[in-house]
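task queued by scheduler; priority normal; single chain, no ligands, no partner chains; default sampling; output format set to structure tokens
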Amino acid sequence: MAAENTGAGAYAAAGVDIAAGERAVDLMKRHVARTRRPEQVDDASGFAGLFRLNTAQYRDPVLATSTDGVGTKVMLAQQLDRHDTIGIDLVAMVVDDLVVSGAEPLFMTDYIATGAVVPERIAELVGGIAEGCQRAGCALIGGETAEHPGAMEPHEYDLAGAGTGVVEGDAILGPNRVREGDALIAMASSGPHSNGYSLIRRIVDEADLDLFGEVPELDGPLGEALLTPTRVYAQDCVALTAEVEVHAYSHITGGGLAANLSRSLPDHTDAHVDRGTWAPGRLFDHLAEKGGVGRADMEATFNMGVGMVAIVAEQDAERALALLSERGVPSWRLGEVTAGSGNAVVTGEYRSA
């Protein structure tokens, strides 16, 4: 009987490269170090991330958690062989959900699955995650890279992440705080963010669009515009909540503006949104034109230029706009809260881009 093939050689024969995984860990360490916060506690084993919550800072600390991925935008990153920004998208999708409750993001963990570990590519992915964590002010305290030969092609990968934040129990934001007369403050998106990419890829395929070709109205290649990373609003929202009377936030993700904004409303109010207060942006116009997609479908799929909405007390609306401007966040008055039945009502015509 032949001797059993055991050890790392057998694992390598099955398609798992342990040495490549170890090199990937070495390459990503410098990126992870950039995100360190003073509350982190070293764990020599490396099996878990440790984070000390100083409860003396809070009267009634409530932990908030969120988990998400990047969806099929990763397929576009793979197609373009561009891997340094998709991690920013991952962090944004997690932490910008966390701050809706009023929580300050504290730390994140990530999970990367790939058909084959290419250390430099994994380091690029983690570098993007670390950049996103820096923008959010949170630490990247742990993660996992898994090699799945046979289940995924060597160039394929997918990302997921989970984040934890903290908010005072009596400061949790949400529909229960929203009042008639509140102002809706829009914060501009950087593009489609990480939603609607199944439709985008269909448009690219059916219209035979060149991802590498220059598009004059987009000031560059289409692929580069589509890979623009999701804006990270976390620190801006935390700062806004500290300075003005914020009642609720709405993170505009899959489903579009109306569907997500209605989630932040009590049953006895409506949010009236005026399309005439902004122009969605040339990329959205380009996708609608090339794909023959009507406004209703565009609005039900994409954020259309609005990535986050703050619902604030009317008397603080101008102050909120000024603070966001100081922080470099394009923002404008989107509409107001009125009596109603828990719906977001969007009317009017968009401005020209």
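post-processing summary
- Residues 119-136 form the longest helix (18 residues).
- The chain has twelve helices and 14 strands.
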